[in-house]
Structure formats: structure tokens, C-alpha cells
Design a protein that fits this description.
The complex is a heterotrimer. By secondary structure, chain A is α+β, with helices and mostly antiparallel strands. Helices cover 36% and strands 26% of the residues of chain A. Chain A is built from 12 helices and 14 strands. In chain A, a hairpin with a 2-residue loop joins β6 and β7. In chain A, α11 crosses α12. The longest helix of chain A has 23 residues. Chain A is globular, with a radius of gyration of 19 Å. The model of chain A has no long low-confidence stretch (mean pLDDT 97). Chain B is built from 6 helices and 5 strands. A 5-stranded mixed beta sheet of chain B has the order 2-1-5-3-4, with helices on both faces. By secondary structure, chain C is an alpha+beta fold. Helices cover 28% and strands 25% of the residues of chain C. Chain C has 19 helices and 34 strands. The chains are: A alpha+beta, B alpha+beta, C alpha+beta. Chains in contact: A-B, A-C, B-C. The interface between B and C is large, with 63 and 59 residues.
Chain lengths: 290, 170, 784
């Protein structure tokens, strides 16, 4: 399997990159980690005329907490998330998800931002961002705009990003004390896409749930934010009944399709089971355990 | 269509005119005739083509040669610095960590990077780190043993760490 | 650093492998590493449909791409009578489709170009006008009246039925069932899977236009047989064909057949006058080359009330794809499936098999298996498990009760196999002890009270490997013997040339060790050569675990032949009578005075410098070994699993594997073979699957969906061994390469059934995926 021909651009600055995208429009694809795009090129499922490689641009590989916001740069790679003590201590859902992305070698090159823009409904990071209520900064030659994660995904491999834009920063509200999260993923083997995965992010307040985020992977045309389940948790004590109710609502929010990974009923059930287990684990962590 | 690139491969600067679509693995195998790097799949699953790019394991079938411009690439051919086997090579032979040999270069390079990061990995850490490299022959048992044995060797032998870093630095 | 080996390499020594030195340095020489001057590259255009009539093929756009040298179609091949080729089962297979395509991925046209990227670009530009026909994707549907006829080009073929075949005694079996207290039944499907060696298949065909000599570098497990078949298919004089099978990156049966790509590349090289390389990509490998299994099995076991097995009845329906291309001995249409009585003393058995054409890739290769033995072993071990379940007996106890007893060997099975040797209770007892079986049963009972699902799977397999004898077993008419040629040089170093061909099994080490044992030449001094038909004696190749049973026996016999000659020379050197010369570990001496001796090296030198009168010079010989019987390796595998009731995930907690493959030549290598086989068995049991949708589209066409186990999910294996030598093999060895893949799938599945059987779940077909387990639990109200 070999890619079809294309022209390659390796701009040294963001401005240069945005200028190229502005000029080339739909004919160009941005190349970050390339771990989804290059296989697509090889299988000739994608044949863009131009590739704009942003890897030569400096200062795009960052993860920092600043002004009450966790900021992630376009070249921040899965492997760095996997090894981040900041994420391990305060952003459990991200720390859980990172080592479950693809396989270790792919994680060395693949980026969080690239994965989010690729918008595979079986992709993990979109779900995590939905649970964390993240915002995405989309930059073009003419300026930048900020989009909520929940407004970003519009279908399989489809988002509100324009061909002239680059996802220049992911912004996540900084974790406060008593925050816990978890990411549970069912995959058939390492390197497989998720059959089902559930992201949970909890903010506890005085023994009650302050806010809750629940995201679902691979059970719909796009990553799903289980908003009714989140609402049911808000302000509630996390007893078994509440957990069961939220899990049932998350399962209802799923829109799985039957395929060789399982039936609709099966996938819905895994959503329910994982939401229950995820909430318990997140709660433990919010209380300083696990 | 051609694009000039200069890649430091196994410590030597290599310049070439390549098509942008040329995969790094083909650059290494076809242009430089470094055939120790193998191809086992089309979809970035098998890891037979794993090389080190600036010291990090990368599947060279999922990176363009033009992307390696200005970077350092290490292949299996550089592991035995000055003709002396790297401890990982010796351990793969000692522990019967290979059969057909096709996955072996990728396995060893991933292992070298693991031991750089974690000089004393547990069995689970080894299995986790190698889970992007598929072996059809060994069932991984002896590969895990080989990595453990190389780790022990690299800790006890004074001369060895030098060779190890030379291999990934070159 | 160097790896020292203090051992000389006698049988039983785990010396390090001689072949490793090149592999660990990246200096192996695999097919894709072969580059010849002026070499062109081939890419294949394949059918997107499972069944369609070809109305026209337009190659103009492809031909116009700069760098394209030729486009080959079936019509062009037909002019040279090469559009069809024979299969290993006596059927025919299209090289390039002329009339219609019969499976998705079938070869339709080939582009030959100066660069592989250009060949690929041009292949995508070939336009084929198809008239899509209804696809037949199951053998059951294929055999229904009125099913679309797949092989309409075959004279006299009026339906999709390929063969009917029977083994055993039907009347006697019916009688046993009539007398039985109980009958246990199991319908199960052993799904299509694929050997998927990490290296795909390929060829570099180099035909010299001036001399007509063809040098074919091929990923071939059977280079000599392939040379003969090429001579027949391509009409080339056999002395002009040289097949070189270089280092092979795994085979597992995938590299036994001759594929259309090989034939087209050879034809193209002949027509163009330049070398042509074709290397499959992974998708091509999975969708078009030799698959394995795809057997629908219906088994019945007759039992007495106390759990004695009285009879076995099996009906098989095999899905052979569009061309009957099983690689197996001619007489046996369902391979050696009739080994299905396994490790048990069953007085009566009968097997009935039918094969059907479907719109799927052809193949029927034995994926790490000796001709359908895997399917047989799986069926009997699953049936025994279900018998235990239904009769509320312990799965280990029912086996112990029914095993063929050690004193019954040689044992004639109800279907006509003469088992050479075995001690089944000993292997099982060792496995049970290693696992702590009875303790784990207690733990299981405790867990069950708490609603937790834990299972212990048992499988006690017996395999049949090492074909011939040649009077019964052949491949495409060629008798299944094998060969060894040994040349001892004047300085006492040796070259051993074999008719078999390693794909990673370690022949360069193991076979040297046989010579070491027989002649005393250290293994380090013996070069083992294989794979080049010009430079090795004729042999049938490496598959079906036959290298050690047959090629290994040939090696021992040729060594003994040279030892006999060496004795004459030693007598001459020691000035004694030949009858008084004794030999021990490389030394010849006069009986009673071992201090006065000549080494094999002394004798080798004398063979070229100081011979007795009347003796031919040299110390070289060749042996073609026709085994008197097959060998019957066996063992017991135990698996412990825990099941998540919420997701259906099965976690293999432990696995104990006790194998008996007779005498182990290099125990390290033998264990390595077993590790690999267990892992492939694990893959088959839980994840490896090639399946199709209703239109015949292949699902599982790359590693995204054809799942191979990684280091993470693969269990850790606890190994054990017993040694029951084969009485007829010169050194008592049996084949071992495939035992673990044959025996382990049933152990894994039995563990799952053992965990859920009490809930009323009696079967889950492979691959046992999480969703299937959960669905089964859900159906009986036991899921979380």
C-alpha cells in the first residue's frame, strides 16, 4: 500500500502554515502526528494534493496550566500525556486515556489535537474533551475563534473546523481540588479501536457532585456527551442509586450500531457498566484514593 | 516533484532527492539499502518497520521520508557499534527471543528505547512497551526474558551503557 | 559482547541458534531484500466483487503511465495457456480471471513498472466493466438446489459440490450408538482464519532470455515441489528452473501453495526479459492467499452411563472457496481429520465429509497444522468437555477414564491410524500437578457461590505428523519422503543439505545437532543449507510438522551411513579389523582399548588422504528417507480464565502446557516452538477471524480487523514435558511445530465453557469474543 502523489510543505512558522492553508483551501491537509492520516494516504482513502506538515514549527508541543486553564498545543503527543505527572495527579481521565490510545509506538508520534480533528467516532480524545468540557481554539489567517468541544463534532470524521484553520490550542478548565476522573475502554486487543469507551470527570463539592462530565466513544456517529446523565449527577450525593440512574441515562444517550464488535444491546450495556465503574473510580480519586 | 532531504542515518549524513510520498521505510530499504528494517503490514499495526527517530521508536511505514529531513534515524544495522553486539542483541540470541527474525529488528529497537527510559522494567512494563510490535513466532515469552536479561547485563557491565547510548545517539 | 556456547551440540543440548547471528544484526536475506539489476515491479489489480462476469478490461490509462512496461491480463496469459493453473488438490485455479471473478480480491490484471509506486498508481487506473452476480458465501447455501453455479467453466460441474469422503466403519459405529446409554452432540464451526506470517508472500522471477534459465526467488516452504509444479504449469524444462527460497519471515502453511502472482511475475519476466519482483501487501495476503479451517462440524459421542466412550460420529461440511486448493495428500479429501478419536480408546468411529465451492478466496492450507488435524482435535476435545458437563463428571477424570493406556501402544485407531507411542495419563497428571488443579476447583466453587465466573479448561490432544510413508501420502502426486546430503570435508568440517526449508524453526541448529550426535562433529562446524533447489537434494518441504520426523530422520540415517564408512577408514588407521571398531561421541577405537583412538576429524582427513585399498574416496552421502509411519505427539493443556459478567471479557489467568514430542533435540528451540504455537492457538480461540458479509466482501482484510495477539494480551505459559520416544524414528523424535496450535484452542474454549456451563451455556464458537460471551450470559440471565 503506497500513497498517491502529493506536494509537501513544511512551514517554519504558524503564519506561514496558515498562509498556505488559506491559499490551498480544500486541496490541503494538515499533517501533525500523521498516525491516522498516513495510513489513510497509503490505503488511498485520502488523496490530498498538498500536505502541510506543522512539525517544523517551534513551540507547538506544550501542556501547561495557566490562568485557570489547562492548555494543550497542537503537537503535544500521546506519549507525553502518558508520562505527564500533572495529568496523572489532577486530570485522571486524560491520564487514564493516554496509555490506551493505539499502541506505544503510535503514541510516540500521534498528537491529541490531530486525533481530535480527525474526529473518528471511535477516537478517544474527543470523548475525553467532551467530559472535561473543553474548548478548542481554531486559528486561520484571518484570526481565531473558540468552539466548545460539544459544538465541534458534527458526525463521523466531520467537525466544524474549516480547511483554512488549524486547531492551535485545546483549553480545559483547570482541575480544582476534589476532582476525579476515569477512562474505561473495551478493546479487542492493544492497538484496536474501542468497541466502547466511557470518560468520566467528576468535581465534588461538600460531598455532593459539583459538576460531572461523561463522554462516550464508538457508540454513535461521533463522540457523545451524555448530558442527561451529567445533569442527573449534578448536586446529587453519589450513592448507588444515583450512580445506577446516571449509568442508565448514559446508556440511553448511546446510539450504537451493530457490527462485528457487538450488538446494539451489548454496546449499550457496556456503556452502562463502564459508566457505573467509572463513576465509582472517579469518586474514589476525587476523595484522594485510587 | 523531488525534494532534497538530509537525514542522519546511523550517524552518517545521507542526502537524497525524494518524492514527498516516499515512506521513510522505503527510503531506508530502497535508497540506502538498509534492509534490516522490514515491512509487515499496511496499517501501522505490526511494528516490523520500527526505527528510532531522534531516539524514539517510530513506525517508519507511517512517516514520510521528507519528514525525517534534519533528523537522526537509527536502524538495527547500527546496534552493534564497532562490531560488538549490543546487549539487547546478545540477549535476544541468548534467550531465544527470535525465530524467523522478521520482527526482531523492530522488537530490539523498541526494547533499547524502553531500557533507556526504564533501566529496570517489570515484566508488565516490558509487555506493555512491546505491544506495538507483533511477533508471530515466539509468543513473546522469550522476548520478555531477553529484555530482562539485557537490562541486567546493562546494569552490571560498565562498558555496556556506553555501547547502548552510542547506538541510540548515532 | 559475544554469546558463548559451552555445549558441543549433542541431542538434548540447548545450544544457541546458529542462524541468529545474521538476524540480530539485520542481515537476514528475505525475499523483499532481493534486488537484481534492471528489476521491474509488479502490482496486481484485484476484483472488488465476490462474483461478477467480466465484460471488458480497459488497460489504456494504466499503460500510458510513464514507467509502466507492461499490463498483463488473463487474455494475454490465455494465449500462452497460462490463464489457469492446477491446484494442490487436483482442481484448477484462475491465474488472472478471464471469464468471471469468483471471490473478492481475485487477481484480474497486473502492471509491470520500473518502480513499485508507479506500478501501484497504474494498477488503480485499470478499468474493468463487471456484471455483478449473486454471491454464495456459505457452503450450506452453496449446496442448495438452484444456488448460483460458481465453477461454470468446469466441464461436468453442475452444482457447487466438490467432494464426498468417508473414513471409519459406519455399520460398527451405528451399532455402538444403538447400544449407548447416552449421546452427547455438538455442532460447531471452526471459522476461517489465516496464518499471517509477519512476512507476506512474494517472488523475484529472473528468466535469462539468452539461456532460458529461470531463477525464482520465492517465499516457499517447499521449493523442490514448487520447481516441479512450475515445470508442469509453465512448461519450462525442469533443469532450467532454480528456486531459491531465502530467509523466510514465518510460514505457518501460508507459503505452501503456488499463488497466481508467482506465475504472472514469472511469465512477465519471460516475456519482458527482465527480473520482475512481486511482494504482496498485507491486505493482499489476507484476502487472497491460503486461509485455513472454515469447517462446519457436527459431532456425536456415544457413551455408557459410567462415562466410557463407545463411538464417535462426525459430519463435516467444508467451505473451500472458489477453487479447491487444499494443500493435502491426494487420497484424503478432508486431510487427516479422521484422527478425530484423539487420545481416546474409542472402538468405533465414522467421519463423513463434503466440500463446497463458495465465492471466497481459495486455500485450505493448514495454518500450523498437519492437514485438518486441528479441526479434529478441537472437535473431540470440545465433545469430551461437553460430555463431562452433561454427565456431571470432572473434565480431567473423564479423560483419564478413556485415554488409550500406555500398554496399548502401538494402538490401531478406529479410523485406521497406528499410533506409535504415548503415555497420556502421565502427561495429564504432570499438567494437573503443575496447575494445582484440585485446589483451583475449590477456588472455582467458592467463586461460583459469590456469582463470579472462573473456568478451568482441559485439552489432551494427540496429533499425527511427519508424513509419509510415501505409499499413503503425497502432495500433487509427489511421495512425501525427505532428504539429507552430508558432506564431511577433509578438515572435519561439514555441510548438511536438506530438502526441507526452515521458516524460523531453527533448522540450521537442530539438524546440525543430529549430525553432532551421530558423528561427533561439533554443531559449530556444521553448515546447514536449505532452500536452493540447485544445491540441495529433492524433498517435499517444511509443513505439517514433518521436518524433524522426516528430514531429521534422513539426517540421522545419512550420518550413520557415513559413520559406517568412517569405521572402515578408522579400522585402516588403527590397523584393526572393522568388526572390532567401536564409536563413541566422535571417537573410533578398538574394542577394549579406548585410549588408542582416532577422531572423526582424523578419519575425515584420511578419507581424502589415506584410504584402505578398494574404498571410494571422500566422506559424503545422501539419504532419501521414507518414514514407516507418522509420529503421534501429544500433551495436556490447562487454562484458567476469569470472566467479566459486565463486558463478557475473558481474562486468561494461567496456562500450563505439557507436551510430549518424544526426544527433544534442542529443548530451547522446542519450547520456543510451543510458545509460538500456543500464542497462535490463543489468537484463533479469541480473536483471529476472516469473515464475509452477505455480498462476499471480506471483513478482516488487514490487521485493523484481522487481530493478532500482542505481548500484552498473550498469556504467560507454564511449561512441562514428558518424553515418550517414537519407536520408529531413528532418534525417537516426533514433530512439534504445530502441536500447540492444534491442542490449545480447545483448552481455551473449554475454559470458557467450564466457567459458564453450569448456567446452561454449552457452546460458544471461536473466536470467543467478549460480545459473544456476554450475549450468551445475557440469554440465560447471568450477565451484569
Amino acid at each position: 500500500m503506497l500513497p498517491a502523489p502529493f506536494e509537501y510543505h513544511a512551514p517554519k512558522t504558524m503564519e506561514e502554515a496558515l498562509g498556505l492553508l488559506d491559499e490551498l483551501g480544500e486541496d490541503a491537509k494538515v499533517l501533525a502526528g500523521g498516525q491516522s492520516l498516513i495510513p489513510l494516504l497509503k490505503l488511498r482513502f485520502a488523496s490530498p494534493a498538498h500536505l502541510v506538515d506543522i512539525n517544523k514549527i517551534e513551540d507547538l508541543d506544550f501542556l501547561e496550566e495557566r490562568d485557570g486553564t489547562l492548555r494543550i498545543g497542537p503537537l503535544f503527543r500521546h506519549k507525553s500525556a502518558e508520562r505527564s505527572s500533572l495529568l496523572a495527579s489532577r486530570y485522571h481521565v486524560m491520564a487514564d486515556a493516554a496509555p490506551q490510545i493505539a499502541d506505544p509506538i503510535i503514541r510516540n508520534r500521534g498528537t491529541i489535537a490531530g486525533s481530535v480533528v480527525h474526529a473518528d467516532p471511535s477516537g478517544d480524545w474527543g470523548t475525553v474533551l467532551l467530559a472535561l468540557d473543553a474548548e478548542l481554539v481554531l486559528r486561520s489567517k484571518s484570526g481565531s475563534r473558540t468552539v466548545k468541544a460539544r459544538d465541534f463534532f458534527s458526525g463521523p470524521f466531520s467537525t466544524s473546523i474549516q480547511a483554512t484553520e488549524i486547531l492551535s490550542e485545546i483549553r480545559i478548565p483547570a482541575a480544582r481540588p476534589q476532582t476525579g476522573g476515569a477512562y474505561l475502554k473495551l478493546e479487542r486487543k492493544v492497538g484496536d479501536f474501542a468497541t466502547v469507551a466511557v470518560a468520566v470527570h467528576l468535581q465534588m463539592d461538600d460531598g455532593k457532585v459539583g459538576s460531572a462530565g461523561i463522554g462516550l466513544t464508538a457508540v454513535g456517529p461521533q463522540n457523545i456527551k451524555a448530558e442527561r446523565a451529567e445533569a442527573a449527577l449534578r448536586g446529587a450525593r453519589l450513592d448507588d442509586a444515583t450512580i445506577k440512574q446516571a449509568a442508565a441515562l448514559a446508556a440511553e444517550a448511546a446510539e450504537p450500531r451493530a457490527d462485528h464488535r457487538g450488538s446494539i444491546e451489548y454496546k449499550r450495556n457496556v456503556v452502562r457498566v463502564f459508566t457505573e465503574r467509572g463513576l465509582k473510580r472517579a469518586y474514589e480519586r476525587a476523595r484522594g484514593g485510587g | 516533484m523531488g525534494q532534497s532531504i538530509t537525514v542522519t542515518v546511523n550517524g552518517e549524513k545521507k542526502s537524497a532527492e525524494v518524492e514527498p510520498r516516499l515512506l521513510l521505510v522505503h527510503f531506508l530499504r530502497e535508497k540506502l539499502r538498509l534492509t534490516g528494517t522490514h515491512i509487515g503490514c499496511d496499517t501501522t499495526h505490526c511494528g516490523a518497520c520500527t526505527v528510532l527517530v531522534d531516539g524514539t521508536p517510530v513506525k517508519s511505514c507511517t512517516m514520510l521520508a521528507v519528514q525525517a529531513d534534519g533528523q537522526e534515524v537509527t536502524t538495527v544495522e547500527a546496534l552493534a557499534a564497532g562490531g560488538t553486539l549490543h546487549p539487547i542483541q546478545a540477549a535476544f540470541k541468548q534467550e531465544h527471543g527470535l525465530q524467523c527474525g522478521f520482527c526482531t529488528p523492530g522488537m530490539m529497537l523498541t526494547s533499547v528505547a524502553l531500557l533507556q527510559e526504564k533501566p529496570d522494567p517489570t515484566e508488565d512494563e516490558i509487555r506493555w512497551a512491546l505491544s506495538g510490535n507483533i511477533c508471530r513466532c515466539t509468543g513473546y515469552m522469550n522476548i520478555v526474558k531477553a529484555v530482562k536479561s539485557a537490562a541486567a547485563q546493562m546494569k552490571t557491565s560498565a562498558a555496556v551503557p556506553e555501547a547502548a547510548t552510542a547506538a541510540t545517539r548515532s | 559482547m559475544a554469546v558463548e556456547t559451552p555445549l558441543k551440540g549433542n541431542i538434548g543440548d540447548s545450544i544457541k541458534r546458529k542462524e541468529d547471528d545474521r538476524f540480530i544484526r539485520g542481515k537476514g536475506n528475505y525475499l523483499d531484500d532481493v534486488v537484481l539489476p534492471g528489476m521491474l515491479h509488479m502490482s496486481i489489480h484485484r476484483s472488488p466483487f465476490a462474483h461478477a462476469k467480466i465484460k471488458s478490461i480497459n488497460t489504456e490509462a494504466a499503460q500510458a503511465v510513464p514507467g509502466v512496461v507492461a499490463v498483463v491480463t488473463g487474455a494475454l496469459l490465455a494465449q500462452h495457456k497460462l490463464a489457469w493453473m492446477p491446484t494442490l488438490s487436483g482442481d484448477t485455479q484462475a491465474v488472472l480471471a478471464t471469464d468471471k471473478v469468483r471471490f473478492q480480491g481475485q487477481e484480474v490484471a497486473c502492471v509491470i513498472a520500473t518502480d513499485p509506486y508507479v506500478a501501484r498508481d497504474a494498477a488503480a487506473l485499470i478499468e474493468v466493466d463487471y456484471e455483478v452476480l449473486p454471491a454464495v458465501v456459505t457452503p450450506q447455501n452453496a449446496l442448495k438446489p438452484g444456488a448460483p453455479l460458481i465453477r461454470d467453466e468446469k466441464e461436468g460441474q453442475t452444482n457447487n459440490h466438490i467432494y464426498h469422503w468417508e473414513a471409519g466403519d459406519k455399520a460398527k459405529t451405528d451399532e455402538a450408538f444403538a447400544k449407548a446409554d447416552r449421546v452427547v452432540k455438538l455442532d460447531t464451526f471452526y471459522p476461517r482464519c489465516h496464518p499471517s506470517p509477519l512476512e507476506t508472500c512474494g517472488i523475484v522471477a529472473d528468466i535469462n532470455p539468452a539461456t532460458g534459465h529461470a531463477t525464482l526467488y520465492m517465499t516457499s516452504q517447499a521449493p523442490h515441489a514448487h520447481r516441479t509444479l512450475f515445470a508442469i504449469v509453465a512448461g519450462l524444462p525442469e533443469q532450467n528452473i532454480r528456486i531459491i527460497s531465502p530467509d523466510i519471515g514465518g510460514g505457518f502453511g501460508n507459503k505452501v501453495p503456488i499463488y497466481p502472482g508467482y506465475v504472472v511475475a514469472t511469465a512477465a519476466s519471460l516475456l519482458i526479459g527482465k527480473p520482475v519482483k512481486w511482494v504482496e501487501d498485507r491486505s493482499e495476503n489476507l484476502i487472497s492467499t491460503g486461509f485455513a479451517r472454515d469447517f462446519h462440524m457436527s459431532g456425536e459421542m456415544a457413551l455408557s452411563n459410567d462415562g466410557r466412550m463407545l463411538g464417535l460420529r462426525v459430519k463435516l461440511l467444508s467451505d473451500n472457496g472458489a477453487f479447491f486448493a487444499d494443500a493435502q495428500p491426494t487420497k484424503f479429501k478432508a486431510g487427516l481429520f479422521h484422527i478425530v478419536t484423539g487420545s481416546y480408546d474409542v472402538a468405533a468411529a465414522h467421519v463423513e465429509a463434503d466440500g463446497a465451492y463458495t465465492n471466497k478466496a481459495p486455500g485450505g492450507v493448514a495454518y500450523r497444522c498437519s492437514f485438518r488435524v486441528t479441526e479434529a482435535s478441537y472437535l473431540i476435545e470440545r465433545l469430551v468437555e461437553n460430555a463431562a458437563l452433561e454427565m456431571k463428571m470432572d473434565p480431567a477424570d473423564i479423560r483419564l477414564k478413556n485415554f488409550i493406556k500406555p500398554e496399548q501402544f502401538p494402538y490401531m485407531s478406529a479410523t485406521g491410524f497406528e499410533y506409535d507411542s504415548g503415555d497420556y495419563p502421565r502427561a495429564m497428571q504432570l499438567a494437573l500437578d503443575k496447575l494445582g488443579y484440585r485446589e483451583l476447583r475449590k477456588e472455582q466453587a467458592e467463586k461460583r457461590k459469590k456469582g463470579e465466573l472462573m473456568g478451568i479448561g482441559v485439552a489432551s490432544f494427540t496429533e499425527v505428523v511427519g508424513a509419509g510413508p510415501g505409499k499413503h501420502y503425497d502432495i500433487a502426486g509427489l511421495r512425501m519422503f525427505d532428504s539429507a546430503e552430508l558432506r564431511v570435508h577433509p578438515t572435519g568440517k561439514a555441510i548438511l543439505k536438506l530438502g526441507v526449508k526452515s521458516q524460523g524453526q531453527g533448522h540450521e541448529t537442530t539438524f546440525a545437532q543430529i549430525v553432532t550426535e551421530e558423528l561427533g562433529i561439533p554443531a559449530a562446524d556444521i553448515e546447514v543449507q536449505e532452500g536452493d533447489t540447485d544445491n540441495t537434494p529433492y524433498g517435499l518441504g517444511t509443513y505439517a510438522s514433518r521436518s524433524t520426523p522426516v528430514g531429521g530422520a534422513a539426517t540421522a540415517m545419512v550420518s550413520r551411513k557415513l559413520r559406517d564408512k568412517a569405521k572402515k577408514i578408522a579400522a585402516h588407521l588403527l590397523e584393526a579389523s572393522e568388526a572390532d571398531i567401536e564409536f563413541d561421541h566422535g571417537k573410533f577405537f578398538v574394542r577394549g582399548s579406548p585410549s588408542k583412538s582416532k577422531t572423526i576429524q582424523d578419519v575425515a582427513f584420511a578419507a581424502y588422504t589415506d584410504l584402505p585399498d578398494g574404498l571410494e574416496a571422500g566422506l559424503e552421502g545422501v539419504t532419501y528417507y521414507d518414514p514407516p509411519n507418522m509420529t503421534f505427539p501429544f500433551g495436556t493443556y490447562l487454562v484458567v480464565v476469569d470472566i467479566d459478567r459486565g463486558t463478557g471479557q475473558v481474562k486468561v489467568r494461567r496456562m500450563v502446557a505439557v507436551d510430549d514430542c518424544g526426544v527433544r533435540i534442542n529443548p530451547m528451540i522446542v519450547e520456543g516452538q510451543i510458545h509460538g504455537g500456543l500464542t497462535e492457538g490463543f489468537g484463533i480461540a479469541f480473536m483471529e477471524l476472516i469473515t464475509f458479509d452477505e455480498e462476499g466482501n471480506c471483513l478482516g482484510s488487514n490487521f485493523t480487523d484481522y487481530l493478532l495477539p500482542t505481548s500484552w494480551e498473550t498469556p504467560k505459559f507454564e511449561m512441562g514435558e514428558t518424553v515418550t520416544p517414537s519407536p520408529h524414528h531413528p532418534i525417537g523424535a516426533k514433530g512439534v511445530g504445530e502441536s500447540a496450535t492444534v491442542g490449545s484452542p480447545a483448552a481455551f474454549v473449554n475454559a470458557v465453557i467450564d466457567a459458564v456451563g453450569h448456567l446452561g451455556i454449552k457452546n460458544i464458537d471461536m473466536p470467543v469474543t467478549s460480545d459473544k460471551v456476554w450475549e450468551a450470559l445475557n440469554k440465560v440471565g447471568a450477565a451484569e
